[in-house]
């Protein structure tokens, strides 16, 4: 008799809402210490409420995008990043930060690949808009 393998959703593999929140906190911290993209986040340090909104929207976006019950309440990606003129190099540094955080949280290769696939699916809506 075969045993059925039950695949966990990406949401479950990231630890649900609590796990995603911890991951997002660490991603923001990683961005603040990344010399290539740090300057983009420095203005927010004087406005903790703005950082809280960014984290909330990121948690909602990630949660909704990977199978959770979260509802994304932020702007669409193009509107949120319009005028920022984000370069390909900056985007890649942000992805590197995300991968480092996923490693820190002990996430497996498939989970990292799935998160990267999500990130790449919105790349054209963020770079140089």
Task: List key phrases describing it.
single chain; Globin-like; 0% strand; mainly alpha; 129 residues; 64% helix; 7 helices
Description:
With 129 residues, this protein is mostly helical. It has one domain (11-125): Globin-like. Helices cover 64% and strands 0% of the residues. It is built from 7 helices and no strands. Helix 2 (16-33) packs across helix 4 (48-65), helix 2 crosses helix 6 and helix 6 (88-104) runs antiparallel to helix 7. The longest helix has 18 residues, at 16-33. The mean pLDDT is 92.
Describe, in short, the structure shown:
The chain is an all-alpha fold.
Q: Secondary-structure blueprint of this entry?
A:
Layout: H1 10-13, H2 16-33, H3 38-45, H4 48-65, H5 77-81, H6 88-104, H7 109-121
- The SSE string, one letter per element, is HHHHHHH
Roughly what is the average pLDDT, rounded to an integer? 92
User: Which percent band covers the strand fraction?
Assistant: under 5%
Helix content range: 55-70%
Rg computed from alpha carbons, rounded to a whole number of angstroms: 15 Å
Please give the CATH architecture.
Answer: Orthogonal Bundle
Q: Give the CA-CA distance, first to last residue.
A: 55 Å
């Amino acid at each position: 008799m075969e045993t059925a393998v039950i695949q966990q959703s990406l949401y479950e593999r990231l630890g649900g809402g609590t796990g995603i929140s911890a991951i997002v906190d660490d991603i923001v911290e990683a961005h603040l210490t990344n010399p290539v993209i740090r300057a983009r986040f420095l203005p927010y340090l004087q406005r903790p409420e703005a950082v809280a909104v960014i984290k909330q929207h990121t948690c909602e976006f990630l949660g909704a995008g990977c199978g959770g019950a979260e509802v994304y309440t932020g702007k669409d990606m193009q509107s949120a990043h319009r005028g920022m003129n984000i370069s390909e190099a900056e985007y890649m540094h942000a992805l590197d930060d995300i991968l480092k955080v996923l490693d820190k949280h002990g996430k497996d290769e498939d989970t990292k690949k799935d998160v990267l696939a999500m990130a790449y699916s919105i790349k054209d809506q963020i770079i140089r808009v």
